[in-house]
Design goal:
With 300 residues, this protein is an alpha/beta fold. It has two domains: 165 residues, Rossmann fold, CATH 3.40.50; 106 residues, K homology (KH) domain (GMP Synthetase, Chain A, domain 3). The protein contains nine helices and nine strands. A six-stranded mixed beta sheet has the order 2-3-1-4-5-6, sandwiched between helices. Strands 7-8-9 form a three-stranded mixed beta sheet. Helix 6 packs antiparallel against helix 8. The longest helix is centred in the C-terminal third of the chain and has 18 residues. The radius of gyration is 20 Å and the shape is globular. Bound molecules: guanosine-5'-diphosphate and magnesium ion. The site of magnesium ion (MG) has 5 residues, from helix 1.
């Protein structure tokens, strides 16, 4: 009998900050749904990226990197990542192309083992690795746990990503799709817009500023007749001095952030965007549970 039953499932992408999880998700989907930057801890929310092909629906869970930082805020980020492990049919554990595991890698590996799900080890950034180092690295990693597959990839240039997708589909359980075929993310445009603004701040400011920032979209208005979306957003910082830096001389820094964010949001929503940004000081928002809740970081 050749009954055609489709496959579907949740695939958790986990790994230490900056290893390339968001880059991989965007690469797999061929569209940008998760923000990327060279600085660790850019991703704060769990993002679902959905890819539907004729034989399967893959629902990827991008997570904030797990790290052992002790603050209330960073513990919350780690919790989001651990949660993803228990929700996944398949886990993709991403590592740097080096056998030196740090404390964060080790604690994550322990959690992965506890979760007891099929796990692929993805050795990312192989574009940075001399070819002859790859096989020895794979055999070293294979001693750590019994991985279902070990897949070297480059999320950045796409190397081996098609092969990865084939393997993922092979391991997914049979079942009907969870989402409509055309849907690529569970993130509403409003929240993605806030994340794009935050990404530009990460890319264009330095030192403590990126981490001191939260963005809330206060207005997201579609003006259909004008073919325009009007967005008002507030950028919260923790101190007056940070506000000054973010705005920049004569408003130059904020203007640059606004212009590059606007271009990305226009690509997302597919029409012209009018974006207005405000900067406000909200003291110690990262320590303030109520503020975290309001900004959407806590679900409970
Ligand atoms: P995340 O914190 O794990 O989500 O990592 P990101 O996806 O934000 O990527 C962190 C940095 O690593 C960015 O500067 C990416 O461009 C870079 N990166 C990601 N994948 C690769 C890769 O395959 N090769 C190289 N050379 N860089 C990569
Ligand atoms: Mg990320």
């Amino acid at each position: 009998m050749t009954s055609k039953i489709g496959k579907s499932g949740f695939i958790g992408i986990v790994g230490r900050p900056n290893v390339g999880k968001s880059t991989l998700l965007n690469r797999l989907l061929g569209e940008k749904v998760s923000i990327v930057s060279p600085k660790p801890q850019t991703t704060r929310f769990r993002t679902l990226g959905i890819k539907t092909v004729p034989q399967a629906q893959m629902v990827f869970i991008d997570t904030p990197g797990v790290h052992s930082g002790g603050s209330h805020f960073s513990r919350g980020l780690s919790r989001v990542a651990f949660q993803a492990l228990s929700e996944s049919d398949l886990i993709l554990w991403m590592v740097e192309p080096s056998a030196d595991l740090d404390e964060d890698d080790r604690s994550l590996l322990e959690e992965i083992k506890k979760a007891g799900r099929s796990t692929f080890l993805l050795i990312n950034k192989v574009d940075l690795l001399p070819r002859q180092m790859l096989l020895p690295l794979i055999s070293q990693f294979s001693l750590l746990a019994s991985f279902a597959e070990i897949v070297p990839v480059s999320a950045l240039n796409g190397e081996n990503i098609d092969r990865l997708e084939e393997l993922i589909i092979r391991y997914l359980p049979e079942g009907p799709p969870f989402f409509p075929a055309e849907q690529i993310t569970d993130q509403p445009e409003r929240l993605l817009s806030a994340e794009f603004i935050r990404e530009k701040i990460f890319q264009q400011t330095h030192q403590e500023i990126p981490y001191a920032v939260a963005v809330s979209v206060d207005e997201f208005q579609e003006e259909k007749e004008k073919g325009l979306v009007v967005i008002h957003a507030t950028i919260f910082v923790e101190k007056e001095s940070q506000k000054g830096i973010l705005i920049g001389k004569g408003g130059a820094t904020l203007k640059r952030i606004g212009e590059s964010a606007r271009r990305e949001i226009e690509a997302l929503v597919g029409c012209k965007v009018y974006l207005r940004l405000w900067v406000k000081v909200k003291k110690a928002w990262r320590k303030d549970q109520e503020a975290l809740k309001q900004l959407g970081y806590w679900s409970s």
